[in-house]
Model the fold of this input.
Amino acid sequence: MPVIEYSDIKINVDDYGYLVNFEDWNDKVACALAEQSGIEELTKDRMDILKFMRSYYSEHKFFPILRYVCKNVDQPRSCVTDKFIEPIVAWKIAGLPYPGDEVELMKKWEPLGF
Done:
């Protein structure tokens, strides 16, 4: 199992770079995952997005509709793509599990605004 070393912590990730244990996530882990994904800084707006995604996933076990994320964190409707370029990057940094087939579904629906 791959391990990311960041500052004074070691983070277990799967072969795709996704956090292995959902409960291991915190701000420092998010920073490490962001760095691995090419995101330099986790601003308050970005952290609000990540925390909402985690909360939504905890309840529904699915990726939220992007406009719903932005609406719930009081940001413009394209906030996820504006802040993270690809929604799947935000998913990974939020410490959510490898989405597997959900990625393909998301790619099909996203151009339609779902």
